[in-house]
Write a structure and sequence with these properties.
This protein has eleven helices and no strands. It has 259 residues and is an all-alpha fold. The chain has one domain: MetI-like fold (Orthogonal Bundle), CATH 1.10.3720.10.
Length: 259
């Protein structure tokens, strides 16, 4: 009865709040029962550590550094992955020539390339952004290529019957039909970026949430590590929500919300 009375968005928000309360209560109970409290700080202790970091300006600086790196790596990976996926999906000879490299590299984690990235690009921002672009590009390529090859042949035949040129078929038939696959690939790749940024920020960094998380272990400041983990997850949720809103607003004709 309650579920029917509440609107869908209100019911979802109610569910989120309840689940958050349950998780916080379980966290508080576990921290109070920990043999070594330092290993599992309480929610209030973690919150206080976050407030202190924000007041000092360190947290804002680390958040800004991480967001910039993720944005640059994600944009670069998408800029390379979308054209490559369209090319591989449109031409069989290109797909057959590049598919072995695609499937080989996409199974290698970005962490395996950290030493090579440091030697080739140094320890500055270039190596970190390259690692994030690496973890983005192959997911985007694979989803885009799958979208192109999944376009119904009858749609292409119909366009040919109406006198459409190859370029018109590509831009007016293939690309619109592939947009939902592109968006799905980009959304998955964004998650990969957030997973990889912690490791990428180990490359001679002095800022970023990844650096904050790992540097806290030196003095067993686990509450600071929990702050970094929580903030990174919150930024990820907000970024994903923003991505969905933007794509639905701009591509509403091609990307439909699943009911």
């Amino acid at each position: 009865m309650i579920a029917r009375a509440l609107p869908r968005s209100a019911f979802a928000a109610f569910g989120y709040v309840i689940s958050l309360i349950v998780v916080l209560a379980a966290w508080r109970y576990a921290s109070s029962r920990a043999i070594v409290p330092m290993l599992l700080p309480s929610p209030s202790g973690t919150l206080q550590a976050g407030v202190n970091l924000w007041s000092s300006g360190q947290l804002a600086s680390d958040v800004e550094a991480t967001i910039i790196r993720i944005a640059c790596g994600f944009a670069l990976g998408c800029a390379m992955g979308l054209p490559a996926g369209l090319l591989m999906g449109s031409f069989q000879i290109v797909r057959e020539a590049l598919a072995p490299f695609l499937h080989f590299l996409r199974f290698l984690p970005a962490l395996a390339w950290i030493p090579a990235a440091m030697m080739w690009l140094g320890t500055g921002e270039a190596s970190k952004i390259a690692l994030l672009a690496y973890t983005t590009v192959f997911v985007v390529v694979l989803n885009t290529m799958t979208g192109v090859t999944s376009v119904p042949r009858n749609q292409i035949r119909s366009a040919l019957c109406f006198g459409a040129t190859r370029w018109q078929i590509f831009f007016l038939v293939i690309v619109p039909a592939t947009l939902s696959y592109m968006v799905a690939g980009m959304r998955l790749a964004m998650g990969n970026c957030f997973q990889t940024v912690v490791a990428a920020e180990l490359v001679a960094s002095d800022s970023g949430l990844g650096f904050l998380i790992f540097s806290s272990r030196r003095y067993m400041q686990t509450e600071i590590a929990y702050v970094g983990i929580a903030i990174l997850g919150i930024i990820g949720i907000l970024t994903d929500m923003l991505f969905q809103v933007v794509t639905k607003k701009l591509l509403w004709k091609y990307v439909r919300e699943r009911q």
